């Protein structure tokens, strides 16, 4: 049932993330140790639930950005490891709460923690991981990094609330949708990258460059995620095609197909998205309408455009293998899931 | 239906909190302004939901402790206002998540936010308020205070998870129960008081004194809360008698009545608490068994004992009106709800 759309050129995305993986390999081992260490608690349920998610094979893209940014600016201390682990904990906490809010049954191809341990434990362990993240950041002792990431924590929550308020609402504009993903997804990408520079106390123009890189990469990443929900391949994606559709999420492909559709198509979108009345064949029809109106293609084109902004944001840095790896990962985010 | 048990001497508790209220009155006005200011967001749902709780007439006991502690140690800056507001935001975030976890219908005599706006919004607005709390603390810029309160955030969540794991489990010991309330309730009382000293960069023995005061006051406060759930007066309490009973919470009155009861009584407790099979008259029977075994009286005696520890923790400070107000509020916490 998965309709696989070739996204961009037929590049192998595993090749475009390889330079970043190589660059951060040693540090990531340290981060993984720290993550295991800080997910420990005398309260048994906490490590059980935390490990379910931590071990589930996420890409750890966000902490990688922190490490890469620290290396790009020539940071020679070891605090970036703790900052990166805190970033991953913030992300994990968000996933736990997201699954409760979205009532998701799966996450990364495994049963969602809330299905195994309940919504209550997911809420509370998320809170614990967020608390641990701030504890680690306090240990690092950089107020600049604490400012960036406490700001991200509040903005992410704001974005999630915006998304909740926009749920099932087909009147959502592309601008409103962009504001949502800027907050709920791009804020942590942005904070992750900027923190890597802030820990080295780099000048403001470098921090701004890293922040812009992370932000635009995050927007591109989320746009592709939204496209893949209608055009991806379930096996590679680790989530079911049509999850967003079933949850009535108003993402860009839906917004475009709705706005570009005729009256009878809009009646269809209202029934399935706003009223949640989904019948056999509706997902396939939705995907067909999206292709008819170039909704997926436009979404990917937008992602490419944000990817270009991310690339240009790094222009102020001298050419080096770190910069190259950070640019290559933009292609990975856009071409992934082939 | 409320069985009102006289707790301690028939003192008027409003008299024992009056010195503290007078002491902090000016600063609390500043805190209230700051709370209103920081609960603002372009995302409409956030101030709506935050105000529902913020305006609902909580006592703001925790931020008062921060202010009182700062005054006790002679702090002459104005950062204690922001720290106190952050403490109240942390508390509000916890209440929002608690109501979701406990599936509560009411909070402070009003419909719970989750009933009005849903569990999803309650989880996310709680996350937002926690993020705002850390932002405010970063603005203050004291790593000592950030350490105390990020630690409290993680410990509170741990305590909540412990409580969840102990739910309906009558094998919970008094020690285990104390460890739970030490974490879920006393950690924020403790952090609130210690922060008031830390913002003034006071010596370690004063910080330890404030920490111990807050911790033991918090334990006493929670023990009385648990006693009131079986012996309070619904009107004054702002919650229904028997809420804990209906949720199968294993609090100290239950632990004691169960342990002191005979085989047939234990069968009763197992049915109502562990199996959640509650019938007409069961709450009254539970209360009668508690009185028969002095379970409420013992719980209150324990609270008094922690109150004494809290009082003694302040011994290192010179006698002054601030110290007197902080000691008087111990009596308020123990004698309240008459």
From TrEMBL, chains A, B:
<dbReference type="InterPro" id="IPR008949">
    <property type="entry name" value="Isoprenoid_synthase_dom_sf"/>
</dbReference>
<dbReference type="Pfam" id="PF00348">
    <property type="entry name" value="polyprenyl_synt"/>
</dbReference>
<dbReference type="GO" id="GO:0008299">
    <property type="term" value="P:isoprenoid biosynthetic process"/>
</dbReference>
<dbReference type="GO" id="GO:0046872">
    <property type="term" value="F:metal ion binding"/>
</dbReference>
<comment type="function">
    <text>Supplies octaprenyl diphosphate, the precursor for the side chain of the isoprenoid quinones ubiquinone and menaquinone.</text>
</comment>
<keyword id="KW-0460">Magnesium</keyword>
<protein>
    <recommendedName>
        <fullName>Octaprenyl diphosphate synthase</fullName>
        <ecNumber>2.5.1.90</ecNumber>
    </recommendedName>
</protein>
<dbReference type="InterPro" id="IPR033749">
    <property type="entry name" value="Polyprenyl_synt_CS"/>
</dbReference>
<keyword id="KW-0479">Metal-binding</keyword>
<keyword id="KW-0808">Transferase</keyword>
<comment type="similarity">
    <text>Belongs to the FPP/GGPP synthase family.</text>
</comment>
<dbReference type="GO" id="GO:0106350">
    <property type="term" value="F:all-trans-octaprenyl-diphosphate synthase activity"/>
</dbReference>
<dbReference type="InterPro" id="IPR000092">
    <property type="entry name" value="Polyprenyl_synt"/>
</dbReference>
